[in-house]
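Regression check, adenosine-5'-diphosphate case 397:
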Amino acid sequence: MEILVINAGSSSLKYQLMDPETGYVFAKGLCERIGIDGRLTHKVPQRDLKVEREIPMPTHSEAIAAVLDVLQDAEVGVVRSVDEIDAVGHRVVHGGVKFAASCVIDEACKQAIRDCIPLGPLHNPANLMGIEACEKIMPNKPQVAVFDTAFHMTMPPKAYRYAIPEEYYEKDHLRRYGFHGTSHRYIAKRVEALTGRKDLKVINCHLGNGSSLCAIQNGKSVDTSMGLAPLCGVPMGTRVGDVDTTVAQFIADNYGKTIDEVLTILNKKSGVFALSGGVSSDFRDLEAGANEGNEKCRLALEKFAYEVKKYIGSYAAALGGLDVLVFTAGIGENDAATRASICEGMEWLGIKLDPEKNKLRGKERVISAADSKVQVWVIPTDEELMIAQDTAELAKR
Ligand code: ADP
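Current build output:
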């Protein structure tokens, strides 16, 4: 089977054509600057091939058309015709309370995704544009939606309820949802496959540009650090993480900002980027800065590791113990120094890294010491594979 995985943002669209059984990637790429001008970057990993093309993309429809064109291209393509693509899987960010699993896209599913727009105003409209563009260009192809929130629907009320007046929960569904669910689910499955055990207490640290932690018990999410939106939890590249909401009121009142403007500050101008004094949101730059003696970069790194450490401690308490700790995503997979500072002084919890094993980048391997009570793993995440597998499974039915 060949599944086309689509991750549509407001002005970008990532794609990957893959075999859901083997995980083999035929081709992948990115459309950028949709609605502005349009640029396509296309890669064929097994041929070490990368091409860039300027293609006008006024809307997501032209972007999808460009993707299908390049996939069928005589020189750089990987299929002879669109018929070879069995189904399309879409990443959808917010599934609200309606989706605890992936679903075949029909009118009712699209309406439900539309109904979730107030909960996911930044992402769901773009995800819908991707879906509708595919429907227009490939009308008879099965399409599946895979939700970032779905894996967390197993959280108990004590984890997902906010202590706010009931009507906001009952009427408006304001609660913790959590994100990166497809990544956390992939890791839960990998841990099960790698250890041969289902009955484990696992904490997964998905640390990338956006970061979230997930407490997993018996393969199910029981708590997670992001909330109604992907803004809270640990500080991120440019997102603030947990903050007293009075900060928002103060900035609005004292700087004449609207709530939307304050949220833009907390989403796009905060996090480690802000702590570093605006040096960068990228941990490679922060580490370079800290190594050159920049104290703000050092503080940004220290604060990040400290907050992740605190979440690990609180989730170990929530789980009543800890068997496996996992690091994944850009920082989790690649940044040995950050992994080391997160785990520093955690021996009391049974976490002990092996400094030599921790030196690795981007490989699936244990990095804890032989006498560490908790097994610590680096496991590269693969959200696209999860989306492709769900899509193949649902498209067959
Ligand atoms: P996204 O949330 O956008 O999917 P990623 O999971 O790709 O993000 O993570 C991107 C981040 O990973 C970068 O901003 C950078 O901070 C970090 N990163 C990537 N490679 C390295 C590396 N070699 N060392 C340290 N940090 C890295």
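Comparison notes: The chain has a mean pLDDT of 97. The first helix runs from residue 60 to 71. No diff flagged against the previous build.
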